[in-house]
Please model this.
Amino acid sequence: MEIKRYLTRRIIQILVSFFVILTVLFLLFRLAPGDPVSRMIDPSMSPEDAEHLIAQLGLREPIWRQYLVYVKNFFTGDFGYSFHYGRPVLKVIWEKLPNTLLLFTSSIILSALVGIFLGKIAAWNKGKPLDSWMTIGALVTHTVFLPWLALILIWVFAYKLGWFPITGIISEEIWLDPDAGALAKALDVGHHMVLPMATLFCIHFGSYLLIMRSSMLETLKEDYILTARAKGLRESVIRDRHAAPNAALPVVTSVGLSLAFSINGGALTETVFTWPGIGRELVFAVSQNDYPLAQASFLLIALVVLAANLVVDILYAYLDPRIRY
Model:
């Protein structure tokens, strides 16, 4: 199948899937328990003012009319106002999004690089003690309970040793200091990133190591590896230039999807470390029945995940000439 025809079919599938997600999210938030109106209305408000506020938000309209307005607003780029913040939803999201991308993209890329390298080494030393220890370590870190790991890191390195801040993304004394330069501020953000980044690194790199190891073992059985050995190539050349690039293909899929899902900020990580990102904001919006903010956050996640799937499929065709669509 030609690539253009494949892209057309996949884009249509993405549009249909996204429209279904759009509808399901609308229904889920309307059917969820809780009432955002009671949180927004000040007890000192008169009944007339309270009713006027509810009418302004469109919450007295029939559900089908709310849905039509919801779809129309989405396609015109109007996500409404956050019930809690009283500000446009897009402004709230764009303020938090860079923090999420900074933390999660950095940690996933770093864990992928380390996981690919160690997975390659583990597969090359199959059956040896080095392979066993690497595999056990990867399994332990991959299956550890994330909040528990985060709290242990906070307790040891932030509370007991005092090496890193416990929560947040900046130190007010530095950012409010007019004499503090850009370098000092960047180092301060990096200092706050260490513990949450270490948590995410431990959780992710194990899965990349295991995927790379398994793929590498299969690749080493291929005929072209035997041919490379018959030509007298060095073992390091066979491992790094012939086997590893092809074995890394499944890791590309995993990394691509991990980067896509990182847009939601990993609610648990951001909540534990009080990191001001999309994930923490999403948890808050759901708990407060802030429909516009929660819906926009989920839609952003869905859109990025669908797009990431398409990008990964296209990358496969370029990385592996054997794949045809």
User: Anything to note?
Assistant: The first helix runs from residue 3 to 31. DSSP finds 15 helices and no strands in the chain. The chain has a mean pLDDT of 78.
